């Protein structure tokens, strides 16, 4: 019988939640790396026992941990993330130019074909890659050297490269997203990059056709339809049908089009999930009701999913990397909150139940579907 | 032998308990002690000082013999009591943050 393993990164450690295919009874392992911020944990698609974790601390900096046994044991690997050559400058909050400074790894994306190859998204925004299982990391500096670099600027949460999506049909094509620069795409394995933000409308950016500067919170793709992308932006939920060449808004009837995560059903490429959040600055669910919204039409028409979720006095946030889906026949959907709950739905969002309620603030949630 | 006391999280990373003892050629300095520490425990590279610039991480401090040595030049000799092993060289995480 299939099983699932949920990998949870929190402000104070990592947790591994496992269940059989029914997803009713859960085993909780952790905290791993207690006291450290775990921005992201993700497994290799080709070797599910191989996991990578981004472990960081304001005191001690960045570590990368690797597991070869599904998270039971871990070993630290390389943590030297050095920008390639001249680091250059980006725009600072006061409009001046500011040198790139490495702060942490937000996101780890293992290769679709090789368990030793992993892409890492950094703050300040840059893309790194290892081909030796994390022992050494090299920057794919064509991204940072894109001519628009001096116009990238940090959002309130920093200038992080937070999304990395590989095209399963084209190993040379990768999408990434940066707050607040936007979406970029490479078609040559990471050597060169192009901004992919046409059609995005960002309040306060005077140029409606601005190439960069958009605060993209998250993008998602269904692997069977890699030219279709969904995006949760600072404001607006957007969709692209041409691999990012152009975008259009599909916020439709959402109660607010602000939010962080977005994900796609494992078997229905037009079924999309978001968690609307009140903004600016509040960053909690509207009316204190925690609702996932699901569109079965690829956007525009959204339904609230509330069964099992708190519908009063709920003031948590759901961060951009904190939602994932499994690929069991009945698609499971998972998300974690800044209040430390991890909710699961074993029926594509119709009903929800907490797996755990009292973890540290959840930064990321990933799911592995195991044979 | 020079005795080094690490913060708890770094002891966990380095998989050591209690103090670390290092053999460092005289005259021992902060740089040479950290070089020896990182050579013996490569996992600590980058956690105390920057990989490339060797600049101290902002929220770590160096103490010995009741003195804060954090702002001393890294190649200054350490106090003799440290080099004789009578007093430990302390690496301390700032009491800050959440």
Overall average pLDDT of chain B: 95
CATH topology of chain B: Ubiquitin-like (UB roll)
CATH topology of chain A: Methylamine Dehydrogenase, Chain H
The percent of residues in helical segments of chain B reads 10-25%
Strand order of the largest sheet of chain A: 3-2-1-30
Derived from helix and strand composition plus strand pairing, the structural class of chain A reads: mainly beta
Total count of helical runs of at least 4 residues of chain B: 3
* The CATH homologous superfamily of chain A: YVTN repeat-like/Quinoprotein amine dehydrogenase
Radius of gyration of chain B: 12 Å
Instruction: Write out the CATH superfamily name of chain B.
Output: Beta-grasp domain
Question: What brief labels describe this structure?
Answer:
heterodimer; A: 371 residues; mainly beta; Methylamine Dehydrogenase, Chain H; four-stranded antiparallel beta sheet; 0% helix; 40% strand; B: 98 residues; alpha+beta; Ubiquitin-like (UB roll); five-stranded mixed beta sheet; 3 helices; globular
Question: What does this protein look like?
Answer:
The complex is a heterodimer of chains A (371) and B (98). Chain A has 371 residues and is mainly β. Chain A has a single domain (3-370), classed as Methylamine Dehydrogenase, Chain H, CATH 2.130.10.10. Chain A is 0% helix and 40% strand. Chain A has strands at residues 3-10, 13-20, 27-32, 37-43, 51-57, 61-67, 75-76, 89-91, 97-99, 104-110, 118-123, 126-130, 138-139, 160-166, 174-179, 182-186, 194-195, 216-221, 229-233, 237-240, 248-249, 259-264, 272-276, 292-295, 303-305, 323-325, 333-336, 342-345, 353-356, 362-370. In chain A, a hairpin with a 2-residue loop joins strand 15 (174-179) and strand 16. The mean pLDDT of chain A is 96. Chain B is α+β, with helices and mostly antiparallel strands and 98 residues long. Chain B has a single domain, classed as Beta-grasp domain (Ubiquitin-like (UB roll)). Chain B has helices spanning 8-14, 30-40, 80-83, and strands at residues 2-5, 20-22, 60-64, 67-68, 89-93. Chain B has a 5-stranded mixed sheet, covered by helices on one side. In chain B, a hairpin with a 2-residue loop joins strand 3 (60-64) and strand 4. The longest helix of chain B is centred in the middle third of the chain and has 11 residues, at 30-40. The relative contact order of chain B is 0.25. Classes of the chains: A mainly beta (371), B alpha+beta (98). Chain A binds chain B through residues 11, 35-36, 57-63, 76, 79-80, 82, and chain B through 7, 9-10, 13, 43, 45-48, 51-52, 57, 59-60, 93-94, 96-98.
